[in-house]
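Possible regression after last week's pipeline update?

I re-ran a chain I had predicted before the update to compare outputs. Posting the input and the new output here so someone can diff against the archived version. Not blocking, just want to make sure nothing changed silently.
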Amino acid sequence: MITRSALFVAAGAVAMLVAGCSSDTSGTATSTTTAASTPKATSAAPEPELDLSQFGVLPAVPTPQAPTTTCDYPAATPAVRDNTPPPTADVPTQGTVEVAMTTSQGPIGLTLDRAEAPCTVNSFTNLAAQGYFDDTPCHRLTTSPGLKVLQCGDPSGKGSRGPGYEYPNEYPTTAFPADDPAASTPVVYPRGTVAMANAGPDTNGSQFFLVYEDSVLPPQYTVFGTISAEGLATLDKVAAAGVATPGGDGAPNAAVTIQTVT
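New output (post-update):
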């Protein structure tokens, strides 16, 4: 999961954000626990917004070297919901996939880009086709300066479980040479981005996050698509309702259940 951070200075942003997001390991922050049954929006004064101009942008998407690729999905922590892992051979690296996600708060349309992350799109669509995401909660909303996302994809709702396998990072991590310090330097993930949550490099599973306002993260979170205008309107509504716990990080007051993903 993406760790909560009070991003008042650039150095602090780097230190706090590098800790990342959780996929299907147990080392998640306690802020992912379920909110009280009658949550109330916090009344604390809003934190000052982060100056995003001090951060760079995501790199260009590398051109696929072949029309297909091979993916690897090694077994990891036992799956929270039964599923069949995705195929590993002849995975397309070109084209997009339109996804309709219905939620209790409204529709969220996604356009998944195989050129950015073919193995991630392959995994996501495979899980969606099996109903893995159906009737599952989006367990975490962050409204902190520099980090504004809704995190979903764990059927347990705890933010610590996944599909029983993990797989390597893709774009933007793969846009940098190996051992390039820039691969750990925070950049802006723009509003409308869909990216994978993880518990460290190459631990992607089923958890993903939806960026509803520009956010700052190191390029270690696989970007695999964009959110429709209608979907952003749904996310704006959820974000406006806030979270049930102080600090702008926790279960959303406007509870979000993913009903179907097609």
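Follow-up from reviewer: compared with the archived run. The mean pLDDT is 86. Marking as no regression found.
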